[in-house]
Design goal:
Blueprint: H1 2-13, E1 39-54, E2 58-75, E3 80-89, E4 98-112, E5 115-125, E6 131-132, E7 134-139, E8 145-150, E9 159-172, E10 175-186, E11 189-198, E12 212-220, E13 223-237, E14 240-251, E15 256-261, H2 268-280, E16 287-301, E17 304-317, E18 323-337
Parallel strand pairs: 6-11, 7-11
Antiparallel strand pairs: 1-2, 1-18, 2-3, 3-4, 4-5, 5-9, 7-8, 9-10, 10-13, 11-12, 12-15, 13-14, 14-16, 16-17, 17-18
């Protein structure tokens, strides 16, 4: 957390050395585009609390999950903004950590008046990430086994293309409404599956009964994810903005074309798990989530806008994956333009 504190201090102190007369537009605004030949950023630093259902362990919760989101914008022209969108989990979130999102997108303004319309085109770099799954094998005396595939809640690790649109209206000089819709089509690709077999209770003369960890290679079929949101931005006072959003996220489940064990430590049980996985053909990792968020932003300088935000999410996963009953996220938003 020392690094986080130093970063926040840096962002507050550095702008004081610049003489800035104009203030940036509200970067949280759903209609935001960066000025030509200029940069803008949105940095979210947050923690979250989640209630979950995880088979076969029942209810549980995750506390103090730290995550950072960074969006970088560049105004290529007055009507075209390029953006990089990334998310990093500092510690485990549903057995995940590290980079969770890496997108390159463009916003192309086709109409800009009281009503505006943007075309959204881009690519997902999710293929730089590995898929993860866990498998449970139970057994009885005599060696009869029941294999249960329980993938972790993870659908991001595939390359893809992004397309969508953003439209809305500037209802008043102080109020903007924007509706965003985007679809991400992810391509078929080979991916590494980190598998863990819990073989507790299985009786076998030559195989371990406590479990093994191994790697497998899987080829996944194409899939398409969807996201949509409605956002409102209101200028409540000079330099003060209030922003709300209602969102819906859908991640399609992964389907396997083929898979094979790719680890020297794998044994006959592991081979059986992968055979069962291919026969089943699906990872049961589809999930959807509804969300509501609200933030307040205060403009300090052109380089720095800060404010708290809160987001509540509720959703459901397919059977076998980690099921999110609800999660609450809260933290600090730091925005700016230069």
């Amino acid at each position: 957390m020392k690094i986080l504190s130093a970063l926040v201090s840096f962002l507050f102190v550095v702008p004081l050395f610049f003489n800035v007369s104009a203030f940036a537009a509200n970067i949280e605004d759903g209609a935001f585009l960066a000025d030509k030949n200029s940069f803008a950023y949105r940095l979210y630093l947050n923690s979250s609390y989640k209630n979950t259902i995880k088979e076969p362990r029942g209810y549980g919760s995750y506390n103090d999950i730290y995550k950072g989101s960074l969006d970088l914008y560049y105004g290529l022209t007055e009507d075209i903004t390029l953006a990089f969108q990334g998310i990093y989990n500092y510690n485990g979130t549903e057995d995940r950590k590290g980079v969770q999102k890496a997108n390159l997108v463009s916003f192309i303004r086709a109409a800009d008046d009281v009503f505006f319309f943007d075309v959204l085109l881009g690519m997902s770099l999710g293929g730089i990430l590995d898929a993860e799954m866990e498998a449970k094998v139970t057994g009885t005396v005599g060696g009869d086994t029941e294999e249960k595939i329980s993938p972790r809640n993870y659908s991001y690790g595939m390359y893809g293309v992004i397309a969508g649109g953003r439209f809305g209206m500037k209802a008043t000089p102080n109020l903007t409404m924007a509706i965003l819709f985007e679809a991400t089509h992810r391509f078929s690709q080979d991916d590494t599956i980190d598998a863990e077999v819990d073989a507790t209770g299985l009786r076998h003369q030559s195989l371990p009964v406590t479990g093994t960890k191994f790697k497998a290679k899987g080829t996944f079929k194409p899939l398409t994810d969807y996201y949509t949101q409605i956002a409102f931005s209101y200028k409540a006072a000079d330099k003060i903005y209030v922003n709300t959003k209602f969102g819906y996220q859908y991640y399609a489940e992964k389907h396997l074309k083929e898979a094979r064990v790719d680890s020297a430590s794998a044994n006959a049980i592991d081979e059986g798990v992968i055979t069962q996985l291919v026969a089943q053909g699906r990872l049961n990792d589809s999930w959807y989530e509804f969300s509501f968020g609200i933030s307040g932003i205060y403009t300090i300088t052109n380089y720095l806008q800060v404010g708290p935000y809160y987001e509540y999410m509720s959703g459901k996963n397919e059977t076998g994956a980690l099921q999110t009953k609800q999660r609450m996220e809260y933290g600090l938003r730091i925005n700016g333009a230069f």
